[in-house]
């Protein structure tokens, strides 16, 4: 079965992925295509609706992205947002001009006509604006459906041609009833049936994988992260023992993490291979203190270990990877097959003899991957795992990575995570962990002088991990963590909390 499709035509707007996610949250499948490939993709994929995104350009710029007129002749409903609206207006003979000043932020928007697009929105609603150019003269055949104080045409329509456009951003949460607008476009204008559900996706993928793989063998490198775990679970459900998962335990994972991953997968039908490679990694890391060098060594060793295991298995037909949709979009919108690099160094496929790649998650956003995990009945601790860097604790042990420092860090980090969860703070914090510094300071325990390590705690809130703020963890919680760690973990006598945001700091310390 093929899902109904909405195509988001990307003009370089910062919210392109967000629009697609909003559409999918309303149970309609959605893909993003660059504007210069849009017409071909429409012919090929036959969407039920098209959305033009915003973009940083002015329609009058020489190099501003344009769209072929043909797109308006397919009789497929179109919704233009921001730049998308200006482009539509310009194409149909309207006038777009630069306003005196940029309109940015929440604005009250007033309804002028009860268009299908906004029929479920109030007559006065708050919307999110971010523009300088705006339409000052409507193209022929278009009606104004909304305006704001400074924007005479905040929403327009040409009902006959099924073209709708708004100057604001309904995809942004600050637009109070943005979801209603998108819903009306999907269900009242494009007549979507809402056939995109995780259960359907799961069942379709299981069938598809079975068909593709036949009786052949598949190999997957399982890191224990969300994407590769969900990928393993989905493949296992489709092809059972034809799947071999190689889980490289680097010895750089958090407390009990290796056992948890093993626990979750070893009972499945798949062939689960755990390689305990701690000694190999520690040997390679001996004496190394430079963060970049540590990352490189860990990444390379991971590949070597995987390669050694793959050699034992012999030739495989398919290599599976947990590539997800943002990776696909970011690397040129589905042009080429993306090979997700492990630990941010070279890809695995170079070293493994395989015929083709399988990437069953390449259509999914991260939150959808998690939903799929739940649909597959995976344990929640795996599905809602916070991000963990490929090089693992190797970059949370400052200076040389030793068994002793790793053990201290694992114990301290486990207490921190336990207390955060107990306090219910895990819902407010995007990522939190401990770092063992390379510093020793003087302390006093009972009647004795101590000279032990300083431990740093880090907690951040973020949506995209590109920027982040330090988490305001309540003092009482920090206090409990501190008391417990110094009492329960040997060799730590001082604890500090990292209060820098990103930028200027990064989330990880190395
Ligand atoms: P930074 O430290 O760059 O981290 O602010 C941003 C996010 O990325 C994670 N991170 C990594 N993830 N391989 C990964 O897969 C890596 O080498 C790596 N380094 C950092 C980090 O945990 C945070 O979520």
Number of strands: 18
Kindly name the structural category.
alpha/beta
Mean pLDDT: 91
Would you give the CATH topology of the largest domain?
Rossmann fold
- Coarse shape: globular
**What is the CATH architecture term of the largest domain?**
3-Layer(aba) Sandwich
The span between the termini is: 47 Å
Unreliable stretches, pLDDT < 50, 5 or more residues? 333-347
* Highest-level CATH class of the largest domain: Alpha Beta
Please bin the fraction of helical residues.
25-40%
Break the fold down into its secondary structure elements and pairings.
Layout: E1 5-10, H1 16-25, E2 29-34, H2 38-45, E3 49-52, E4 78-81, H3 83-91, E5 95-111, E6 124-137, E7 143-147, E8 155-158, E9 163-166, H4 178-189, H5 198-213, E10 218-222, H6 226-239, E11 243-249, H7 257-266, E12 271-276, H8 278-285, H9 291-313, E13 318-320, H10 325-330, E14 356-358, H11 366-375, H12 380-383, H13 403-422, E15 431-445, E16 448-461, E17 469-470, H14 475-488, E18 492-497
Parallel strand pairs: 1-2, 1-3, 3-4, 4-9, 10-11, 10-13, 11-12, 13-14, 16-18
Antiparallel strand pairs: 5-6, 5-7, 7-8, 8-9, 15-16, 16-17
């Amino acid at each position: 079965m093929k899902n109904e499709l909405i195509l988001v035509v990307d003009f370089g707007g910062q919210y392109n992925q967000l629009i697609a996610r909003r559409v999918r949250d309303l149970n309609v499948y959605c893909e993003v295509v660059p504007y210069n490939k849009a017409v071909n993709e429409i012919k090929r994929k036959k969407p039920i609706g098209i959305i033009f995104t915003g973009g940083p350009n002015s329609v009058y710029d020489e190099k501003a992205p344009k769209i072929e007129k043909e797109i308006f002749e397919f009789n497929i409903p179109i919704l233009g947002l921001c730049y998308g609206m200006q482009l539509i207006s310009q194409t149909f003979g309207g006038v777009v001009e630069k306003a005196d000043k940029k309109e940015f932020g929440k604005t009250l928007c007033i309804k002028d006509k009860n268009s299908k697009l906004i029929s479920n929105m109030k007559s006065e609603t708050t919307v999110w604006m971010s523009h300088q150019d705006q339409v000052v003269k409507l193209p022929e055949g278009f009606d104004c459906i909304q305006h704001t104080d400074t924007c005479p045409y905040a929403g327009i329509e040409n009902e006959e041609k099924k073209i709708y456009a708004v100057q604001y951003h309904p995809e942004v949460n600050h637009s109070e009833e943005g979801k209603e607008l998108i819903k009306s476009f999907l269900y009242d204008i494009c007549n979507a049936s809402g056939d995109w559900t995780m259960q359907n996706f799961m069942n379709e993928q299981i069938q598809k994988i079975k068909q593709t793989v036949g009786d052949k063998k598949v190999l997957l490198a399982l890191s224990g992260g969300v994407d590769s775990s969900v990928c393993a679970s989905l493949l296992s459900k489709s092809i059972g023992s034809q799947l071999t998962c190689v889980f490289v335990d680097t010895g750089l994972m958090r407390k009990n993490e290796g056992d948890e991953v093993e626990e979750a997968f070893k009972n499945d039908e798949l062939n689960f291979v755990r390689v305990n490679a701690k000694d190999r990694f520690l040997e390679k890391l001996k004496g190394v203190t430079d963060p970049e060098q540590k990352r490189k060594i860990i990444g390379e060793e991971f590949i070597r270990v995987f390669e050694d295991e793959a050699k034992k298995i012999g030739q495989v037909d398919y290599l599976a990877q947990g590539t997800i949709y943002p990776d696909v979009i970011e690397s040129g919108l589905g042009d080429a097959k993306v090979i997700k690099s492990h630990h941010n160094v070279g890809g695995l496929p170079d070293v493994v003899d395989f015929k083709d790649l399988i990437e069953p998650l390449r259509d999914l956003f991260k939150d959808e991957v998690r939903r799929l995990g739940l649909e597959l009945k995976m344990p929640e601790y795996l599905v809602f795992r916070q991000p963990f860097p490929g090089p693992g604790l190797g970059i949370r042990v400052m200076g040389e990575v030793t068994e002793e420092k790793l053990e201290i860090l694992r114990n301290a980090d486990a207490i921190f995570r336990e207390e955060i969860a107990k306090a219910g703070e895990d819902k407010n914090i995007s990522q939190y962990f401990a770092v063992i510094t390379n510093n020793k300071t003087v302390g006093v325990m009972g009647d004795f002088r101590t000279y032990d390590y300083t431990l740093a705690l880090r907690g951040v809130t973020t949506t995209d991990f590109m920027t982040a703020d330090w988490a305001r963890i309540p003092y009482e919680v920090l206090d409990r963590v501190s008391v417990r760690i110094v009492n329960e973990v040997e060799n730590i006598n001082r604890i500090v909390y990292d209060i820098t945001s990103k930028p200027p700091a990064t989330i990880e310390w190395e």
